[in-house]
Prior knowledge:
Blueprint: E1 2-7, H1 11-22, E2 26-32, H2 36-46, E3 49-50, H3 54-59, E4 65-68, H4 75-84, E5 88-92, H5 99-109, E6 116-119, H6 126-137
Parallel strand pairs: 1-2, 1-4, 2-3, 4-5, 5-6
Amino acid sequence: MANFGIIGCGRMGKNHAKGISTGTDGKVVAVYDPNPDATAFMHETYGAEVMPNAEALAAHPKVDCVIVTSPTYCHLEGVKAAVGAHKHIFCEKPVDRTWEAALETESLVKDYDKIFTIGFVRRYLPKTRRLKALLDEGFLGRIRFCNVDLPLGIFKRLYGDWFADFDKSGGVCYN
């Protein structure tokens, strides 16, 4: 069984915790988030120990893998903590908001002997897999240009949320 620590208990942290808890081979043992309501939910729902900071979570002796689901602009903090504690790391995408932070992350994990991966799991969604099958079958013909919109309304950009602030969120890194 793998034991997970989650840094960031918002939307994606809760999503990952739910996924881990529905399987038989994993358990969320520790969480960190500066929002006490978010960590209280994770403690009450999954029995996770609430940690005072990212470093304490990563250093927790029962944590095998650190999942970084904090806001994009905070990813580097979680990655540094996990590398410092020599743990496996799953970091939500994008790896960070700025090119400088992405390069710093790369330098931390370039020769790292533990697993470091960036989550981009939409390719495993049933609708994505079906589209891929249609393309492979040639059903849609030769595609020269394609724009795919994700009709997934559960993660909305709300006023005042970090997710709606371009300086803190967004797609690819900029430089």
